[in-house]
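Q: How would the C-alpha cells look for this protein?
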Amino acid sequence: MKIALTGNYGKTSIILNLAAKLMNVNYINILNLSYANLGIVSDIYKKCTTDFMRNVFISENWCLARQIQEEIDSESSNNITLCDQTILEPLGYAHLKGIPLFDYHKDFVKEWWKTYNYVFYLKNSSCSTFKYLETFIEENDLKVNYISSLKEMVDVLNL
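A: Here is the predicted structure in C-alpha cell form.
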C-alpha cells in the first residue's frame, strides 16, 4: 500500500504523524496484512546536490527520478509506503520556474499516479505552485482526497 500527500506546506509533518499513529495501533489487522513494515519517502528536495538556482531543469528532473526510485525501493521492502510528496511536485516547481514541461513528463505522471493507493491533497494555500498542482489534478481527472488535517486523512483511511 502506498499513501502520498501532495499540495501545501506541512506535508512532512502530517506523514510523520501518520506513521507514528500507524505504529501505535494494530494496523496489521486494520489493513488486513500478514506482516507490516513501514517505509517513508521524504525530503527529496533536501537530498538534491544540484544547485537549484543554477540549473533548475536538471534539479527538477533529478528530484522526479529520485522520488520514483525511492518509492520503488520502499515498496520493495515494505508493505506500507508513506510519501510526503508525489511525483507531481517537481512538475509544479518546474512550472513555477518557467521550465518547459514536455508531454512525456505529464503522461508519465498520469501513469505513475495509478501506483498510489491513496493520494491526499493538503489544501490551504494560494501559492502558484499549488494552483498548478490543483489544475493538473483536475484537468487529468487524477484520484485525490482533499484534506486540511491529519484527522481528515485518518478518517478517510478508517484508522
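The longest strand covers residues 2-7.

The helical segments are 11-24, 27-30, 44-47, 56-77, 88-96, 103-113, 128-139, 150-157.

Upvote if useful.
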